[in-house]
Amino acid sequence: MTKAFVTENKDVEELKPLLDGLKGGAKHLQQAGMWLMQNAMQNFDHAGAGAHDFLRLLALVTHGYMWCLMAKTSLAKIAEGTEDKAFHENKLKTARFYMSHIMPEAATHLARIEAGADNVMALDADAF
User: How far apart (Å, rounded) are the C-alpha atoms in residues 125 and 100?
Assistant: First the structure.
């Protein structure tokens, strides 16, 4: 879904920074999914160890997609001459903030997933 949105809006100059962030997050999500599929088949602990970060990564990308949709709507409303221009300009500012300050967390979640389960499972149950 994000790929289609990016393709459809690639020529909208105001959306390019948002689309770049969305593409980056989606790329990390795809990498995480591939890593889990390849490695969790050999060691199911990898799935358990990476589950939290995978869900957080999925949430980041989903929220990023939602911000892109809101930004596109706000750009259209501003172009139409909305009476609530400040509201829509603030939506655009928030979307840019999300992509520059929140979406980069996707790389951290990917790194934690790819770290695998070895350190997570290193302690015996008796150690707790």
Answer: 40
Look-up: residue for tokens 């400040």?
Answer: 86
Who contacts 61 (Cβ-Cβ below 8 Å, separation ≥6)? 2, 22, 25, 26, 28, 29, 106
CB count in 10 Å sphere of residue 10: 11
CB-neighbour burial class of residue 50 (10 A; exposed 0-12, middle 13-18, buried 19+): buried
DSSP classification of residue 127:
G
Domain borders along the chain are 15-117
**pLDDT tens digits for 39-76?**
998 999 999 999 999 999 999 999 999 999 999 999 99
SS3 78: helix
| CA end-to-end distance (rounded Å), the chain | 43
Buried b / exposed e over 92-110, threshold 16 CB at 10 Å, is: beebbebbeeebeebeebb
- Check if the beta carbon of residue 90 is closer than 8 Å to that of residue 62: no
Q: Locate tokens 């490695």: which residue?
A: 39
Full-model pTM: 0.91
